[in-house]
Amino acid sequence: MTTLKPGDAFPSDVVFKYIPWSEESGDITACGIPINYNASKEWANKKVVLFSVPGAFTPTCSVNHMPGYIKNLPKLREKGVDIVAVVAFNDPFVMSAWGKANKVQGDEILFLSDPDAKFSQSIGWADSASGRTGRYAIVIDHGKVGYAQIETEKGAVKKSSADAVLASL
């Protein structure tokens, strides 16, 4: 269990669950088929912002965390970010529905599932009491970590906010 820090290589074995967005399953009540998303492979040659929330559809995550990333997508793209992804312990169906509820289409933001908080536990950033993913943000630039911060104050969205990530780019 090693916390990621700037300069570290992003782990080579990170696989999330994911339901790709599609026009035919774009309605919130439509279900897609979950697939494995090999983040280590997909992100190896890209600049990525990964932010984590304790749970989809929860108040802090839905009101204070997600909207900042949606609003700042153009600014993140201007800073050279290829992929913005959010991860939570929720299953891929819930994550897909949360993306649709936020009117995110296509691959504007990837809504990834970290089943059993496996990845978050591997970097020491899972909540041991609840088993959920912690609230954090990581910038990965061509396989190297450039920014990695976890919120230590309950309900806070400071170090993992879109503004904090933008300031680090």
From TrEMBL:
Active site (UniProt): 61
Keyword terms, alphabetized: Antioxidant, Oxidoreductase, Peroxidase, Redox-active center
Any one GO molecular-function label of the UniProt entry: thioredoxin peroxidase activity
Thioredoxin domain span: 4-169
BP-aspect Gene Ontology terms: cell redox homeostasis; cellular response to oxidative stress; hydrogen peroxide catabolic process
Domain of life, per lineage: Eukaryota
Gene3D superfamilies: Glutaredoxin
GO cellular component annotations of the record: mitochondrion; peroxisome
Stated family: Belongs to the peroxiredoxin family. Prx5 subfamily.
Role this protein plays: Thiol-specific peroxidase that catalyzes the reduction of hydrogen peroxide and organic hydroperoxides to water and alcohols, respectively. Plays a role in cell protection against oxidative stress by detoxifying peroxides.
UniProt-recorded name of the protein: Thioredoxin peroxidase
